[in-house]
């Protein structure tokens, strides 16, 4: 055998090290370019969503409604933090469809976010699209819903995110967890309702019932058999995963004779606190612990779980009814012989309760779950949100059914009512062909400041446009969201796609930049994706723009989104491979 000298041996070793480094570099680069790959030990979860019509009867009224796989509400997605989720959506109805995975961060995978004409063109009849994303740094409850027009009235379902395998929960392990999904039922087709409202300029007809897991419950006509019943065992701990999938209504929720412990909101843990009532806006999720009563105490009654609206708008603009479900200890058939206990719910317009409940929400802010709130602000914004008017179309004597007979309802941020484009904003951004699609001149503050919660200005008309804000990668952003009383003070649940944000402050009246920042909570603010802007008040949020793409922000009251209370953020790529938007998938729908 030939002798290998030391120099040759060194060369071989160096070559081997270089090859190893090249392989390692290549592997790392592949991982950076494929963020949808699950982490080590994680799984890939595959689902197929067939969107099809299904006859469903509620309130003795049968209607063919859009469903996923014939189910109402739709199927739940169960996954773990770090898992990859792949969902093939097939459209078998006449309407265009997209699905939004509400609250999922979508790190660099904006093509899978779902809002029509923002991150994708819709899936047309007979076509399909595969949504492909990874759950990053989230655990708890989110949900999915349609993101075209008002189709989410029946197209929605839970997303259950379990912790990584082997990681304990930071609260008492429940015996069982149960999704509690709030919705709204319309006897008429919601698409016809919104079309009529846009034609007349007036407010849309309200829903005919609220539902819990798709069922109206015993307080509605013809619905005693359509009641959700939660059967519990005495003394056991239950985790209720509350999801507000209603179109247009914030809700109070309570369980008779039971205390709820809030432990998680919008898939982020919070410092646990006890409450008899939960306030939850459309777009929000809240996980609560409920301990069933001991046997002797439980046997003597049936307990109602009830929800009704928190309504700060004009009378007649919300469904003023109550939905009920049953918390059941006794075997079926014994219910009628037991006393029925009802919970006490706040008044419809109890703004003080709303403010107090929001103030109790604090993130864990501990080593395992730190609160990475931005302490400096690179990009400050002040957004005045609320309703406004626009002249009736046609000749000067045209009348419509808005605030006056010559105006129709609209909604805006900083007096800009957002016009939806006819091609996807993300595609225009990615290809560098934004001309004629959007302009990067969304105002950072109102061009004409006024007394936002005081006497409204004489001119209540708004402007229109497809205007966006462009942010550099990883900029620290602060947005103060100020309610306006132009057509009456009203709470607005604002939802931001692609990010969680920290709620650092809130208050009543007008925001004062010389006073209020000193009161901000930068230690343990709650982390959310949807926040209620207080009626006649303001809320301040902060986030890092660490997710390249185009991200929708809008009111999650669907009527306000329809009227234009929405805008978009364009976040540019960063310099590193892992800071850049992924290329679009090959099956991305075309407009």
TrEMBL record:
It is found in: Secreted, Extracellular space, Apoplast. Its main location: secreted. Pfam families: Cu-oxidase (PF00394), Cu-oxidase_2 (PF07731), Cu-oxidase_3 (PF07732). GO terms for cellular component: apoplast. CDD domains: CuRO_1_LCC_plant, CuRO_2_LCC_plant, CuRO_3_LCC_plant. It catalyses: 4 hydroquinone + O2 = 4 benzosemiquinone + 2 H2O. GO terms for molecular function: copper ion binding; hydroquinone:oxygen oxidoreductase activity. Keywords: Apoplast, Copper, Lignin degradation, Metal-binding, Oxidoreductase, Repeat, Secreted. SUPFAM superfamilies: Cupredoxins. It comes from the Eukaryota. The keyword Transcription regulation does not apply. GO terms for biological process: lignin catabolic process. Residues 51-164, 177-330, 445-573 form the Plastocyanin-like domain. The keyword Transferase does not apply. Binds 4 Cu cations per monomer. Its cofactor is Cu cation. Lignin degradation and detoxification of lignin-derived products. Belongs to the multicopper oxidase family. PANTHER family: LACCASE-10 (PTHR11709:SF521), MULTI-COPPER OXIDASE (PTHR11709). This is Laccase. It comes from Oryza glumipatula.
